[in-house]
Inverse folding.
């Protein structure tokens, strides 16, 4: 935003300065060129009058003296000829010089003189001017002047330098004004950004100033403050609700579990089936309660990371996969599932805390052991691919159809095929939330030739400096 605004303001400033400076440069060059031509033409007219008198008196002495004096004073070449082209007086110029015969012919024909183009500071070519000698339409000769434009070009250069210096100063002032204007306009936006980050981090006092910048941004700041207050109040209420629910439900569920367990010795054979159903419901309630708390914790972690307040940590995926294989090996043996760890011992350092990766792996391994079926093989593997760490938990069980894989990480989703089994339907949703909060991805894919793969890719941890 700042860059775009500065570009617009600077472009406008450059156009304004150019629109001011360019006409001045052109008019200055044109005025100095006209003054040069008028001065030299006046000199030629004076010489032409002297030449006319010399033709009438048949005496060229004064004419030669004038031409010589003019050449000595200005160092410009001049030649005066009669109607036959014979020189009457000359100094620094002859009929053999380039363009002189053409200029003499045009002057003898009484044709208008060809004026030079506007001079520039870098102009260096001499200007050739010619006027006829005589009165009215009676031409008795021609006077030709070759004049240097060095002095006029130098004057134009000095004038241009002054104009450009003034334009540069004006451009500097415009740049400073643009910077001040951009700061004035964008300061409320920076305040707004700070407020947004504060709201995302859960800060209570996320209000921003409402007296900065244009009226529209002041109005936006006021709207944001009202929204911030509402969001903060809602977040506090939600956080309080989770805390209160956690505190209020934990004890009743624990008491309910103790009560159900204590009733087991009083259950008759006829009531055994009912007791088992009650026990299963209590276990599912415990699982759901724990999953909801884990999901709330994952959401809180994601919010903190989005606000830049989260804790950065890393872990070795290879080492952790070996450790989790040892932890789940007993459960896998009981389910008749073969569980294998990575074959390579090369470390794969992920930008993911060990506790979070352990939670993600436990969800994926638990699901694989539970649903792959007896005789299945669950493989744990990790590698570095395309500059990121890849961890995969693959099984060769029955897998899931494509429509189910697409929604497997949705909250409270459970496969219709395994609906009778225990579970909250939040495990993969929590795992995905933890992984995506760290800039990674989690996908449920089909294994080849059969089975399922839970694959997560996470940025690699940055190597610590010396």
């Amino acid at each position: 935003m700042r860059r775009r605004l500065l570009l617009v303001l600077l472009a406008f400033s450059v156009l304004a300065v150019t629109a001011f400076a360019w006409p001045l440069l052109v008019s200055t060059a044109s005025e100095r060129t006209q003054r040069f031509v008028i001065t030299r033409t006046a000199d030629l007219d004076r010489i032409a009058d002297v030449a006319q008198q010399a033709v009438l008196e048949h005496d060229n002495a004064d004419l030669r003296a004038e031409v010589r004096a003019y050449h000595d004073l200005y160092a410009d070449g001049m030649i005066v000829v009669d109607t036959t082209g014979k020189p009457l007086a000359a100094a620094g110029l002859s009929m053999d010089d380039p363009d002189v015969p053409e200029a003499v012919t045009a002057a003898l024909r009484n044709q208008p003189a060809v004026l030079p183009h506007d001079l520039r500071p870098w102009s260096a070519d001499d200007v050739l001017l010619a006027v006829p000698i005589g009165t009215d339409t009676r031409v008795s000769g021609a006077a030709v002047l070759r004049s240097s434009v060095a002095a006029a070009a130098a004057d134009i250069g000095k004038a241009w330098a002054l104009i450009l210096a003034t334009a540069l100063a004006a451009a500097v002032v415009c740049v400073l004004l643009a910077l001040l204007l951009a700061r004035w306009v964008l300061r409320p936006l920076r305040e707004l950004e700070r407020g947004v980050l504060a709201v995302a981090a859960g800060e209570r006092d996320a209000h921003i100033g409402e007296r900065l910048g244009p009226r529209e941004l002041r109005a936006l700041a006021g709207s944001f403050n009202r929204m911030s207050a509402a969001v903060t109040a809602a977040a506090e209420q939600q956080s309080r609700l989770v805390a209160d629910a956690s505190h209020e439900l934990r004890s009743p569920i624990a008491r309910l579990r103790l009560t159900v367990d204590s009733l087991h010795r009083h259950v008759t054979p006829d009531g055994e089936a009912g007791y088992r159903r009650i026990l299963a419901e209590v276990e599912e309630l415990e699982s759901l309660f724990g999953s909801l708390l884990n999901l709330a914790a994952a959401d809180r972690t994601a919010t903190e990371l989005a606000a830049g307040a989260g804790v950065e940590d890393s872990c070795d995926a290879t080492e952790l996969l070996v450790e989790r294989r040892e932890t789940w090996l007993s459960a896998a043996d009981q389910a008749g599932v073969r569980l294998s760890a990575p074959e390579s011992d090369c470390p794969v350092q992920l930008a993911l805390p060990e506790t979070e990766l352990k939670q993600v792996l436990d969800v994926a391994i638990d699901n694989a052991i539970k649903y792959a079926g007896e005789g299945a093989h669950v493989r744990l593997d990790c590698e570095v691919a395309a500059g990121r760490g890849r961890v995969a938990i693959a099984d060769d069980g029955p897998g899931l159809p494509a429509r189910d894989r697409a929604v497997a990480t949705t909250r409270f989703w459970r496969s219709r095929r395994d609906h009778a089994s225990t579970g909250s339907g939040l495990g993969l949703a929590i795992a995905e939330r933890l992984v995506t909060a760290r800039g990674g991805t989690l996908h449920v894919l089909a294994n080849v030739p059969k089975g399922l793969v839970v694959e997560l890719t996470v940025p690699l941890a940055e190597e610590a400096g010396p």
About this structure: The chain has ten helices and eleven strands. The chain has three domains: 2-155, 215-306, 315-459. The domain at 315-459 is CATH 3.30.565.10 (Heat Shock Protein 90).
